[in-house]
Design brief:
Shape: globular
Largest sheet: 7 strands, antiparallel
CATH topology of the largest domain: Thrombin, subunit H
CATH architecture of the largest domain: Beta Barrel
Structural class: alpha+beta
Helix content: 10-25%
Number of helices: 13
Strand content: 25-35%
Oligomer: single chain
Radius of gyration: 31 Å
Distance between the termini: 86 Å
Amino acid sequence: MTQTAKITLTATAAALLAAGVTLTTTATGFTLPALFKDKTASTATADAGGGAPAPVAQAVQAATAAAPVVAMPATQLPNYRAIVQTQGPAVVGITVAGLHKVGNADMDGDAPAARGDEDPFFRFFRGIPGLRMPPQGPQPFRGQGSGFIISADGLVLTNAHVVRDAKQVTVKLSDRREFSAQVLGSDPATDIAVLKVDAKGLPTVQLGDPKQVQVGDYVLAIGAPYGFEQTATQGIVSAKGRSLPGESVVPFIQTDAAVNPGNSGGPLFDASGRVVGVNAQIYSQSGGFQGLAFSIPVDVALKVKDQIVAHGKVEHARLGVTLQDLSAPLATSFGLNAPDGALVSSVQPGSAAAKAGLKAGDVITAVDGEPVRVAGDVSSRVGLARPGDKLKLELWRDKNRVSETVSLGRAERDRQEASAAPEGGSLGLALRPLERQELRGSGLDHGLLIERVTGPAQLAGVQPGDVLLALNGKPVQDVEEVRAALKSSPKQVALLVARDGQQIFVPVRLG
């Protein structure tokens, strides 16, 4: 009743001001002149004179009639205590140990990851004067994260970056039991890993539907930030379907629940106590929580889990297009009423998109009947599909609506290892093409970044961070050219590499 009175009074006050009546403000609202405190009496007095109602009273009547009361639904706070008590036993802490070339922490502080000598950018510019080189050779590391049990026989979900490079993984339950865990598989593209512990009758979480969660809904995170196990933090869903830089597959759930290093891999619960996300990343300039946390929708994690359990690996599909979001000016130029959809800026020859007839300038407006608002909607849908899956694309082309069915291709791995045929031994290089910014920064027009060195190449003195320019005098543009050169099983090859601004030949004896 109090809220209704306030809404009516505000509309009435606006009408009175329009009629020229002066209002006096108080600490709680308006003070009306005594003449108009009783609207009915004022109207009756004016009518008794035989004329039209007084303008002010008429304004009061109109304003009161035109001010609908919007009743907000009653909202009850979630029972966080009950969620922690019933679901908390299925949330686990994860500690990992292993060997790393450099033992620096990951960008969100969980399990150590590729930094220093493992960072391509760091390695590429390692010749900068005054830049301290990290220690060489394997370095022991320990890390920690979180996870949650999804089956009573010991399946645990966590982040791939938590267990990356780990040789030993230990899962610790809330009752302080500890189990050695096996990593069944991990998928860096979605940052999901599946662990298995040898136990029966374990507590499990309840799984929810992320599609039912809306912006503004309450959420609860449980994990082990900085090693403080079974820590619960609450917040709301801040946004859905977020695409982060370098993350084109996962439509993240953004929340303001406090998530810190060590929370990675832990569950995000909805108000009913069901898991809707896997806490994965934070945006931070200090290394700690700053109000921006991102979770992988649990349905995405479960799709990855199913592939890992069934096949031991995850395959992602590929469309073969470059997409960008539409702006209002672009939408107008293409004849669209709203800037919704994903604009195709280029199509890779020979890709699934090219075979289906997609063209630069097409706007993808729907995938299998589901509307597309931004480019990330298409990227996540394609990335989570399997190679060979068929998608029906609704397109806006030349100011007409058309439909195309595409059979998705297979996504190539970002890092491929070039090796010879088994009988010829191996070169021992993990290579990838240089990215555009790396080419600009190096002044090179081609080359393959050497990310990892083992075997013959390591013995010959090739180093991570070198750029392979040519093999046996022939320039190399991609990994397949290296493989082709090794098919004849040569006894020795000469590698031309760029290192610290200089080019040197390195002979490598194979076999």
